[in-house]
Write a structure and sequence with these properties.
The protein has 71 residues and is of the alpha+beta class. It has one helix at residues 33-44; strands spanning 9-17, 22-29, 46-50, 55-59, 63-70. The protein has one domain: SH3 type barrels, CATH 2.30.30. A hairpin with a 4-residue loop joins strand 3 (46-50) and strand 4.
């Protein structure tokens, strides 16, 4: 049986940049993806998001905060 924390869910990721501006990006993923995204960003210097239609690549040093809302 899969733990509820491991199940993919529709989510909105809000990125706040160092200049105070924000972007939102819709994804379907389990909460476990956050750890992977942060580890990748610290390793590569880029924060990467994608869904079935779009992709987003942001320099990690320009990000102030990341917030994920699960629906």
């Amino acid at each position: 049986m899969t733990d509820i924390q491991d199940r993919p869910r529709n989510s909105v990721v809000e990125i706040e940049y160092s200049d105070g501006s924000t972007d939102e990006f819709a994804i379907t993923a389990s909460p476990a993806i956050i750890k992977s995204l942060v580890m990748e960003a610290s390793k590569t210097g880029f924060f990467r998001l994608w869904n079935d239609k779009d992709g987003m690549l942001v320099r990690a040093d320009g990000i102030r905060s990341i917030f994920v809302r699960y629906e």
